[in-house]
Write a structure and sequence with these properties.
Layout (H helix, E strand, L loop, with lengths): L12 E3 L17 H5 L2 H18 L9 H9 L10 H23 L6 H8 L3 H11 L1 H14 L2 H10 L7 H11 L2 E3 L5 E3 L5 E4 L4 H25 L7 H22 L1 H24 L12 H31 L8 H54 L5 H43 L4
Antiparallel strand pairs: 1-2, 3-4
Helix pairs in contact: 2-7, 4-5, 4-6, 10-12, 11-12, 11-15, 12-15, 13-14, 13-15, 14-15
Length: 443
Amino acid sequence: MASDILHIKDGYFFEVPRGLWKSNRADAKAFPSWFVRLDSDYQSWEADALISGLTEIGIDMTTVSGLKSTWQEWQHESAKTAGWPLDAYLEKQAALAVTAASDWAKNNTPKATDAYQAYLGSNPRPDIDWFIQLRKSPEKLVKWNELKGKVDSDAFLSSYLTESPNRRWSKEKIDQYNKTLDGKILIPQPFGTPRNAYEAESGFCLSRYMIIELVVAILALAMFGWLAKKVATGQAPKGKAWNALESMVKWVRSDVAVPAMGEHDSDKFMPLLWTFFVFILGCNMMGMLPWVGSPTAAFGTTIALAGIVFLIGVFMGVKTFGPVGFLKNICPELGLPWYLAFWIVPLMWVIEFFSLFIKHSVLAVRLLMNMGAGHLVLLGIMGVGISVQAATSMSTPVWGVIAMISVLGTTVLSILELLVAFLQAYLFTFLAAMFIGSSMHHH
C-alpha cells in the first residue's frame, strides 16, 4: 500500500505499490522534463551557461570564479535547499541580504537614505553584493532576465539532451531514478510546468487532490441529478438507492439546516448546505480508498470551503441589514445601562469582529486536523511494525506479534475514520448553516 503520509500531502502524481507501476525509462530523454532539471549533471550544465552569460553581461570573471562551488555546497546544507538551481540561489541570497540590511538599518541607522549601503559598511557581502548591484542596473537586469529565461526554456533543456557530454546517464543513475519513480503515476500537465513532484514552476499544474475533487463533484452531480429526475416524476420513492438518497436529503434539512437556520431560511440555503455536505463527505471517503487520499486533509481545500461560508455570510448580512447595520449586528444587544454600555459595547464589538474571522479559520482547521490526524495515527501504528522489522529479522517472533497488532490497530482505526468522515461533514455543514444564519438575524 502507498505511504499513509502521502494521503495528507498533495502532489502531481498518484502513488500505488511499486510492483503495480514500474518505471522502465531507458535514458534521460524518457524522464519528465522537471525530473531532468533536478539532475545534478543538468544543473551543472545550466550553471556553466549562467556563469558564462554573467561574464557577457559585464560581471568580472574573478567575481564568479568560485560561485559554482559555493552554490553546490549550499545545495547540500539542508533538504530545503536541495535541487535549487543557480539562478534561484542567487535571487534567494539577494533577497535575504536586502531583508537583513533593512532589519539592521531599522535598529542602527533609521535615518539612512540607503539602508543596504549603510549595512554594507559594517557587514560586507562580497559574495552577493555584485548580484544586487546588477539588479539595480535596469540595463543589466533586463539582460539577466533574458539569460534566466533562456536557461529555463524547453529549448535549453533540449540542447542538454542533444549536446551535453553528460547527457548519456549511466545505468546506475537510470536504475536509481527508475526506482524513485516506481509506483508513481505522474499526472500529465498540459497547462503548467512542475518544479518537482509537489511544487509548480509556472502555469496551472493539475494536482492529485484537484482530480479527486473533480471526480467527487462529477459523482455528486450525476447521483443527485438522477435523484432530481426521479423526484420530478411525482412518484413515491422506489428502490434502495432512491430511498437512501432522499433520506439523506431529508436528514440534512431536518437535522442540520432547520435547527441551525430556522424553517424560513433552511429551504433557501438547502442547495448550498447539501452541496457542502455531499462534497465534503465524498472527499473524506476518498481518503479511505487505498492509493487515493483525502483532499480535505489539505489546508488549501478546507480554507477555500470556509472562505465560501465567510463570503456568503457577509454578503447575506449586508443584504439583510445594509453595510452599517451588518457591522452593528456583529455585537449582540447586551441590555446594559448607558454608563456600562459606553465602555463594554465597543470592547465587545472589537472582540466579535475579530471572532468573525477566527471562527471561520477554526472551521477550516477543524476539518483539516480531523482528516489529517487519522492518517498520521495510521502511519505511526504501521511504522511501529516497520521499525521492529528493520531492527530485527523477519523470522523473529516479536516482529510477527507487533505486525499483527499494527494491522489490527490500523483496521480498527480505519473503521473509526469512517465515522469521522461522516461526523466532520455533518459538523462543517451544521456550523456553516449557523454562521450564515447568524449573519442574517439580530443577536
